[in-house]
Amino acid sequence: QVQLVESGGGLVQAGGSLRLSCAASGRTYSSDNMGWFRQAPGKERDFVAAITWKGSTYYVDSVTGRFTISRDNAKNTVNLQMNSLKPEDTAVYYCAAQRGPSYTDSYVRNNYNYPYWGQGTQVTVSS
Predict the structure, then answer these.
(1) What integer pLDDT is reported at residue 27 of this predicted model?
(2) What is the rounded CA–CA span in Å between residue 21 and residue 9?
(3) Which residues contact 106 (CB under 8 A, 6 or more apart)?
(4) CA dihedral 118, 25, 108, 59 (to 10 degrees)
């Protein structure tokens, strides 16, 4: 089993920045692919960003150029730097893990392919 704990959420004004962190423990492997998803009230959980064990990154179009995903395998952490935040970024953000090492673009974007999830952290962007 893998345990994931997110931190770093909060309230920020539009145009501001936040840095989310996800600490992984348990049966983790450096070959795991990691993702961030978000869920706004009344909406489905959507893909935000992913990083493979090789360091390849994927983003949803709406955050490209504003968000950056990174990982530190030595510390078992994955981060999401969020800049130029917009009110529509408001959601609960979830960290997720899937076993690697294989991956495809569509595979890492699909939340059904992630068996391990954190409890989520709230991000609220005021206008």
Answers:
(1) 83
(2) 9
(3) none
(4) 70
Rounded to an integer, what distance in angstroms lies between the CA atom of residue 127 and that of residue 125? 7
Measured CA to CA in angstroms, residue 93 lies from 39, 74, 80, 90, 101 at distances of 7, 23, 10, 9, 24
Residues in Cβ contact with 58 at an 8 Å cutoff, skipping those fewer than 6 apart: 49, 50, 51, 105, 108, 109
Tell me if the bond preceding 87 is cis, omega within 30° of 0: no
Instruction: Give me the half-sphere count of Cα atoms (radius 13 Å) on the Cβ side of residue 75.
Output: 9
The stretches in the chain having pLDDT less than 50 are: none
pLDDT per position as a tens digit, 6-23: 999 999 999 999 999 999
Asked whether the beta carbons of 82 and 69 are under 8 A apart, the reply is no
